[in-house]
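Researcher: Here's the sequence for the chain we discussed earlier.
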Amino acid sequence: MRVGFIGLGIMGGSIARCLIEGGHEVTVNDLKKSAGDDLIKLGAKWGASPKLLAQNSEAVITSLPGPVQMQEVVLNKETGVLAGLNPGSVYIDMTTNAPSVFRKVAAECIAKGVDVLDAPVSRRPPEMTIMVGGRRDTFKKYEGMLNCMAKNLVYVGDSGHGMIAKLMTQYMGYTYQVAVAEAFIIAAKAGVDIKILSQLIPISAGRGNVENLQRQIFERTFEKDEAYPSRSYNVIAKDLTEACEFAQQIGAPAFTGLMAKEVYARAEAQGWANPLSMVRILEQMAGFTMKVSPSNVSG
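Model: Thanks. This is the structure I predict for it:
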């Protein structure tokens, strides 16, 4: 397949290399022409502009710093990707983008008869995961090309859903890191050996037990209290309150702890017993009830 690839940074360059090694005819473009030197040695061609690159491509992929750069590269009337793409081709955005921005660009592509997929990534080749949003038939048409770049290829759903999934995996990872960092700082400032604290994480509540949370979300067992003592939330409230008060006493931050304490306190006020019924509070705040669909993972 003739593939145009724009954005040859650390991530984009390694992805483009996968396409070349997968046997595709690849044309590359970047603000810095030197960024394409190694890929050209491997057989890639240089596209003088996004528009010229797109004119000779069946598929164009972008991997750019953010929404501003993506819109300029795709929608510029004189030099942009959309000005060069032909009806029946596809535009795939691997940028970690704002869903609203991607959908705006996608609408303009579709109006011209160009198919679209959002396909943000996590990690780098050869361990890369690609999260894809867009029409299922479009995904199936280009699944083989995407697979040559990914260890894990996941069809998430409609247009923009790949972007949302990427942002939420980042949200989970980074907020957890803040919580862990806060706990280490509080402990260290109080004189606790943090190496010993780290040994306790996998054999205590500190491990987070994300697997149990996921299972209860999927099965909605967080709505059931039968297996839990009525004092469950009393213990959680007490422990979080004491932890946050201690952090305050020694002048250490506890932002995530205070937010979590508020959510758990609201669940406790409802008289619920299951510690994970705090999910119900978050659903109420969102005005939305989660529903689980079948898995869309392919390898």
